[in-house]
Amino acid sequence: MMRFLLKRVLLAVSVLFAVSVVSFLMFFALPRDPVTGMCPKNCNAERLERVRTELGLNDPRTEQYANYMKGIFVGRDLGSAQGGKCEAPCLGYSYVNSEAVSDTFARVLPVTLNIVIPAAVLWLALGVGLGMISALRRGSLLDRVSIGLTLTFASLQLYFVGAVLLLIFVYTLKILPTPRYTPLVDNPVEWARGLVLAWVTLALLFSAIYARLSRAQMLETLSEDFVRTARAKGMPKRQVYGRHALRAAITPIVTIAGLDVGGALGGTVITETTFGIQGLGRTAVEAVRQGDLPTIMATVLISALFVVVANVVVDLLYAFIDPRVRLG
Amino acid sequence: MGRSESAPSGEPDRPEVPEQRSGEGPYLRVNDLRVRFDTEDGVVRAVDGVSFAVERGRTLGIVGESGSGKSVTSLAVLGLHNAKRASITGEIFVGGRQLVGLPEEEVRRLRGRDMAMIFQDPLSALHPYYTVGRQIAEAYRVHHPKAGKREARQRAVDMLGRVGIPQPARRFDQYPHEFSGGMRQRAMIAMALVNDPDLLIADEPTTALDVTVQAQILDLLADLQAEFHSAIILITHDLGVVSQVADDVLVMYGGRAVEHGSVAQVLRRPQHPYTWGLLSSVPSLRGDADADLVPIPGNPPSLINLPSGCAFHPRCRYAGRNGNRSTTEVPELRPAGEDGHLVACHLPAEERTRLYQEDVAQVGVAR
Questions:
Q1: B194 → chain A, closest CA residue
Q2: Reported pTM
Q3: Which residue range or ranges hold the ABC transporter domain (chain B) (predicted)?
Q4: Distance from B345 to chain A by nearest Cα, in Å?
Q5: Residue spans per domain, chain B
């Protein structure tokens, strides 16, 4: 088990390393100068050059990369213009936002977490539940309605559903405030009211996909020999389904759910944009638009970290669920 | 298994059943069983009027090609068909109780307790995520709701030991993938027998195993039957297996019984050309090693669109001997001379005997 874990973690670290190198290189491959973009109108060439030197953009790229990585692991001194000493893990200083990237993150990361985690709970419960019931009542009215609805929602787009919900609940019925993030500890009611549309939007679309997936998985499992064996033992239907079929049907869903949640934590760009909530996703998009290297690097690395961690967690869960995977 | 003599730890939680099960009559009696499935392509008559009976302590072998209806018959006895998709008519008496038309919940209570099944491929028939022992203990606890975990575990370990699995207490906690094929099938048998069923249905129990293990499993089944006195149905396409362990044989073709009798009758003095074909396509250790195996020409019939008259006529080399009877008239299962030997064939008895002597027995492949 420890070897299994160690192998997965080493693999994860090397993936993160590769991601950091590639995103660093891609940034410099872009045909634009970050300094020109951020400078007000009365900039002369001399001043631009001075800023570049100050930001370290004139240093060799390998050195810039080494400095950046050094910042993450041991911290570094960014100079007085960039907030001075930066403790590890130092994600750098954003010359666009005029603040340390870690401060930006402390603000936007909780927003995304608070959107994604409740939404994920909602979509998994709704999607898997609906899919399972659908499979067990195959051909019933409920099943057929569910197939139609899930097909519809799986084909819709986040920004469309989000906009429709906004129109109904915020602008027409006026029963919800304009979406915004209030920390849960400050005011749980406002927290829920401000984010519920984002949760529902994500949940509707994702649960549609999960319902279809769970239904297909469950139907496949129900035709397995071991389900017939369980019935031949005389087990009541409820136990056959709940104990034997569900466990086998849920396994592949765990994999996909892990990856989806990991991916969503890295930023729900469209949802955040639709509802005007400043989370990780929007921050990342703005950073790219403004050529804000430290923020780009940080958002890319954080998203990659989420995906990689989700992968390790899924592997572990898999080994836990399926005894055949153990000691892999 | 006579539950009156040796009731193991804690008599199962059975509803009161009139004591018609003890004594008179065979334990399982099937009369004119018909199983139909409505599919998009038409009605599949998987079993079309089959009757047989099995007494306690005896073994009935059901033989036939794939799609002959043998597995469908056994699943019908256990009530494992989907009630929405299969339409079942006829009578199935298990211990005197008619199962066709009984509510699912009542059939469920009998399943695994009075009648149990062993499946063909133990690897796929056991749940890959649960330990073997847990699956056996679970089968026990379903029908002994008052039994505690420890009692169920002890019972499962005992059964694992009884079917010849070494170190049963340690094996209890292992998963199916940690068992060898033969051990898995033994575990499967332990699971089927954990509640002392009176009827055991084994659906090709040795097909997925290699030959040496096959013999061990068959011996085990015979031993357990001698010990527990249960009625066994053995479904197979292997006539060698039938001759080893069965008392009676039912040969099925296209969802119907074509020949029925004791092993000696059906295998030594077979009456139906299809049975001849089956026998001629099996190598014999006793016969001439150079003798050619004779396959039955053609393919098993479609159960949606069965050939008219005798379903076997397109593959029967004697079909032309009765004018057009074999294509127009369905042959009935009739006594074929000896007591209890039944055959469904239009050929007159004397002609059948002569043909068998001339065409089949002479070739030296028949047993």
A1: A233
A2: 0.82
A3: 28-279
A4: 36
A5: 26-114+197-367, 126-196
